[in-house]
Fold each of these.
Amino acid sequence: MARRFIVKNEDINVLENNNINIRGPEVKHIQVLRHNVEDSIIVNENIYKIVSIGKDNIDLEYIKKAPQIGIPTSNITLYIGFLKSEKMDFLVQKSVEIGVKKIVPFFSKNVVVKLDEKARDKRREKLQKIADEACKQCGRMDTVQVEEFLDFKKLKSALNEEKVFFAYEASKDSLRNEIIDLKERKINNVGIIIGAEGGFAIQEAEELNSFKNVCCVSLGDRILRAETAAIKLLSIIIYEMEE
Ligand code: SAH
């Protein structure tokens, strides 16, 4: 199959007949790979033929939709307390492979990482790139959005999925019962909340737990690292939703 490139919407100019002109970092990438006029490539979810290659932009003729492979049938959003650098990179990559649809990093009381606004933008761009690369590498034909980082207050109003699993080590509630509920109600729109290295302050945990759509679950009596907890819970839920 043709090689795939992921181009941000702001770098795409839509022309007549679904043809497009693209700019930005993937243009360089396409040039470095020595693609020529007439080559077929995939940009985001469509197949195109290269019409002309300029210095900083490329004209593409729309051919057809790319085969819809590797796209999760479940709709899972991962809310993750901001982890220290490589751990965050690692978790973004792994959760894309496993099948998350959207990643929302957040800052709660015990998050150690501190980022000012400018640093947040830069960090988000890097994480988005990791997510894009992971989509390409694992052969999923959709994209996974790394959303703007939220402060805890905003996180609370963002939790609008039908059912949100909040992993909390102090919980006594069984995950099994909540999975049964998920399947009985045929829910397809799920959130997962995992705390950062320092976990949640009690008050924060109580607040999350007070939402009607949030269920607080234990992942067993061992305390897992945040990234382990995220991968464990995500894997269990996606398995149950997509089997
Ligand atoms: N508060 C803790 C541990 C944080 S572990 C401390 O500092 O000692 C990081 C995150 O992983 C937690 O916020 C929780 O979301 C998840 N987690 C880890 N182990 C878990 C378990 N046994 N059950 C549920 N969630 C767990």
Amino acid sequence: MPLIEVKELSFSYEKSSNLKKQDLSNINLNINRGEIIGLIGPSGSGKTTLVQQIGGLLRPDHGTVLFDGLDIFKDSKVFRKLRYKIGLVFQNPEEQLFSETIFKDIAFGPHNMGLSRDNIAKRVLEAINFVGLDKSILSKSPFEISGGEKRRVAIAGVIAMRPEILILDEPTVGLDFEGSRSILSYIKQYNRENKNTLILISHNMDDIINLTDKVAVMSAGEIKAFGKTGKIFADPVLLHSLKIDVPEITKIMKKLKEKGFNLKDSVFTEREALQEILRLKYTI
Ligand code: ADP
Ligand code: MG
């Protein structure tokens, strides 16, 4: 059984008008336990709206979301049981830090779960460790730390609830290269160590290719393609028709090929590029 099953889901923000546009229409999506799913598509295509439905924050007009076979919208009892199992990190989550100390901010979720003081402290330490921050930061105020640190603290606050699925809505947006790399590396490690399920929304195709097993491509409220990441990015016709950007390394390799180097057509990772360049030594 898939961990998450989105079934024939449709949704409009506008409920009254006859001319209402469908912000999500007939979405079907199965996510298996342990998978890392990338969600891509242009701004306004419905990515955030879809993950808010999966997180139970917005109720679909039609269709539903099943978690482990349970309809999350069935009744409040089911929802209460599931709400901590689905961890949603909003876009720019650092804007929601509000406590006097980092400790209190990360402890907020575990506290609401009704855990004991000892357990809460344990969860907070575990989470701060996961996002690569030193525990000395816990006594600071959110106003005293950098933007990248705030982002990590906000993610730690969700990880501290130990959700079975972690959903990250553009986790690296606005961060510099180093900040992005470190956030992605611990997300990868988190998935490896916990074998938990992940949905990553991103506009950075390098990150999508390096991190995800499968990718869903959205456009105008629909999922236009869903499949193994390698397969989706190896299909130039599909990439072109859905206007999917390609990684920087792919662009660089294409330019070199145009300059006359004997390189293969589509190279998507830095590792592949290195292999191709090393292979050149036999031909130049
Ligand atoms: P994405 O995350 O892919 O950029 P969104 O899910 O934010 O896309 O938006 C999907 C569509 O829903 C867009 O047309 C957007 O304008 C609309 N939308 C998003 N949030 C709201 C809202 N709170 N009220 C009304 N319309 C919204
Ligand atoms: Mg969005």
Amino acid sequence: MRSLIDELRTEHILKQEEFSVLIENYNDVDLSEYVFSMASGLRDDIFGEKIYVRGLIEFSNYCRNNCYYCGIRAGNLQADRYRLTQQEILECALEGYELGYRSFVLQSGEDPCFSDDDICWIVSSIRENLPDCAVTLSIGEKSRSAYQSYFDAGADRYLLRHETARSEHYRKLHPEELTLDNRIRCLYDLKEIGYQVGCGFMVGSPYQTADCLAEDLLFIHAFEPHMVGIGPFIPSAGTPFADRAAGSVELTLFMIALIRLMLPHANIPATTALGTLDPMGREKGIRAGANVLMPNLSPVSVRKKYSLYDNKICTGDESAQCRSCLERRVMAIGHTLAVDRGDAPGWSRKL
Ligand code: SAH
């Protein structure tokens, strides 16, 4: 099995059946320790000791969609809805700047109340006020022309997890009107426009198999994203999957490590979901090859309400506390927080 890991490290790809075999053996501690050390070594070769931070601004939990796993789905009547004003979103970024952040992620449900012009205003006002910062959007499936207008307004990156690369599996996680084809169309549009693009998936979502995960890896290899976001599935009250088991932290770490070996230069976050299932989850994510953390910059008054899943961490802390807590945690495991934009190596804006 170790020889497969060595091959992945040098060739950056394996056959689907080989990925499946590795994934089925994620519980083998000797194997996982080997993968983690290879992956974090490769990450260190490329990024040194730096861990990049992105300030996350969750600006609305209204959503028109009904994904079966998600706590802010339209049909969840228990969700306490909120949306920040455009001015409040800008203020969050300004506050983040004071705390040292130079990269912001604006995330929301698919909230029809924000028009494309509103999103462009938010992006361009952050870029005008903070020209040395990067702006990432994560606001779901839009038309190509909408993606183009956000890019022209100054957005640099877009996160849109593909959720699963297998269409039968996609069908089991989403209602009829949402299709894998459209999700993939969005990802390719974003890439062609010139964004740094992030795809990704949950580990342990209902009906997922080792083969599904192997297909996710092949999709990611073919798509060559600049970022890959993965985290464990965590059940959420008020959703059809409320009583399902959570995904495995160990398997999530194993998948992070495989993705690092496959795409050495990718930006890979140690996600909040990982930190929610295990108090040391984010540190373990870094040990497995992740190189990004996404602390919360949303106002404390709304943080608990952006609950994609139950028991989310860091919902009571002020942004300044998050910053110093992360700094401490990262230093304790021998890394430093990087404050620059942290673009994907080799990326620049098309002129
Ligand atoms: N509306 C945006 C942002 C979605 S929320 C979009 O469509 O991209 C960001 C991510 O949270 C989702 O892509 C999903 O992978 C993850 N997520 C949603 N519900 C979750 C749950 N119950 N457990 C873990 N992750 C979840």
